[in-house]
Amino acid sequence: MSKPTINDVAARAGVSKKTVSRVINNSPQLNAATRARVEQVIAELGYVPNPQARALATGRNFVIALVHDNTNPQLVLSAQQGMLEAIRDTEYALVIRPVDRRAAGMEHDLRHFLEMHRPAGVLLLPGVAETESAVRACREAGCKYIRMAARLDEPHRLVASNDRRAAADAVSHLIALGHERIGIISGPEEAGPAQQRELGYLDAMADHDLDRGPALIANGDFSFESGIKAGNLLLEVSPRPTAIFAVNDDMAAGVLHAARARGLTVPGQLSIVGFEDTPIAAQIWPPLTTVHVPVAVMACGAVFKMIYPDQAETLPAHFPLELIKRGSVAPPGA
Fold this sequence. Notes:
Elements: H1 6-13, H2 17-24, H3 32-45, H4 51-58, E1 63-68, H5 73-87, E2 93-98, H6 106-117, E3 121-124, H7 132-140, E4 145-148, E5 158-161, H8 163-176, E6 182-186, H9 192-207, E7 217-219, H10 224-235, E8 243-246, H11 249-261, E9 271-273, H12 279-283, E10 290-292, H13 295-307, E11 318-319, E12 322-324
Parallel strand pairs: 1-2, 1-3, 3-4, 4-5, 5-11, 6-7, 6-8, 8-9
Antiparallel strand pairs: 10-12
Helix pairs in contact: 1-2, 1-3, 5-13, 6-7, 8-9, 10-11
């Protein structure tokens, strides 16, 4: 059995196709009785409007795109949850597009995707957001975009947090407890948030005139496995750090694993701090002290900027972060 069409709805309701289209698009140019009759026929037939045809008819597309580079799956999931919350009970749909920002053809591929789907807006997650070629692809395709990144753009194109300040506050918390030998597990060099968090660590250590030499800095790629590897490197340093700050929670969990494998108690012999406050932070033992980043709220705000462009400049562009204190931190030797 073929799917019902707009012509079928119009014929059964005894109205024109244009009237059916007005009902679908919530036009005010209809009386209540006509609207109710058409809506009843739509329900009876199970008619589903064609989104492409509707976009052509209204001059609007009802798709929001999430573009990411796969480096941080939890970030993608949280952003997706926030975007779905924003479009709930609206006519908008979410499409997710992974890209490889290091690939030579990334800009061309992304522009082709945007030209094909013509989304009403695009949210660029960290990693992609700092890539000017991705922004250029959005501009050349004529797509509105919002970056989730540090202060790289105008407020109506941005949802941002001060990761550098939050990281400095987290490290300062360790210092206030008496830690002086503090290591860091940094992230990929091209990842903007990781760079900002490392700079915050360096700020705090410099403010207190503490050692921040290369022996106390290990590199990771945001993964749990890289946290184990980097944690082992730092725990081999002599004298050993009494605390380690990792620029995301997965790597901090890896440090906890490395410490346990060496028979070290946390937080008695080693304090650990993460960043992002992902679910793993509360699920491991001891639960992880970390910086809460409201990714879902930021993503929700980004979508509001896209679907309510007249209010974009008045909607929040900068979101506060909060240090969540849990059981992975204590004074040294506690």
